[in-house]
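Justification of computing resources. Each target in the renewal requires a structure prediction run like the one illustrated here; the chain below, 283 residues long, is used simply to show the kind of job we budget for.
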Amino acid sequence: MTPEKPIRPAPWKERFASRLFFALGPRMPRLVQADPPNGLKPWEPVTVERPAGGPLQGTWYPAIPEPVRGAVLLMHPWVEWGKSYFHRRGRVQALRMAGYHVLAVDLGGFGDSRRVPGFLDRDVEAALAALRQRAGDLPLHLWGVSSGAYWSHFVLARLVPGTGVAGAMFEDVSPHLLQWSWRMAPLGRPFYLFFEHVLRSSYRYLDLRRQAPFLKLGAVSYVSGAEDRGVLPKETRELAGAAGGRALIVPGAGHLESIKVANAEVIALALDTFRRAEEARSR
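Resulting structure tokens:
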């Protein structure tokens, strides 16, 4: 049976739902982000234009070897460090050495990027457009972590196959952030129930299990930790199956720990995913 494509809520419903969604989300302090360390030179600060609300702030890391084979957008998790989360754990270095330009962008509400009403997938969409402008005809890929992976699904699900992103790598992504909150922040359960039953169209739209079947990518992979209380292994496998991708469950890892526990394996999976996506695109 062909799944029904999710319908975006009406603008006023989205604005109301997003206000409640972010009111229920974890509070993050706004930090002045440090420049990338010396080991990530050369780099340059960039701005990503949005239709409203001012620009997003990003960092561009050009590929080191020639020829360049593609470009990757990095979308950060819900942590106070924003795009500077990627200063560690070797993702940027591995991508550049493999021949990829890298763009890391702050979602609205992090760093110097202002949050605007509505869902954050609009920020991912703007970041992808900026990456396409810089990368020209090179294959594009997306590597999202937790919240960054979550909001990226909505953008990728509405792209026309073959015209947008070739491959994607997702770490520690919940199929529904309010279901994640139900487990991790139980004091908010009355509000989550209100959201689910009163804002039904928004709640259904925000379910990645309804979005994943429309990720028509050359290749996609999902990673999560076996000890992650908010993202269960079966949910990671379910999303990967719906998207036609692969799943890696890292033993002993909690949330945001897969890259720490199995660093080489996670990075190797991402590079292999992007390579396979490019091969599929060239057929």
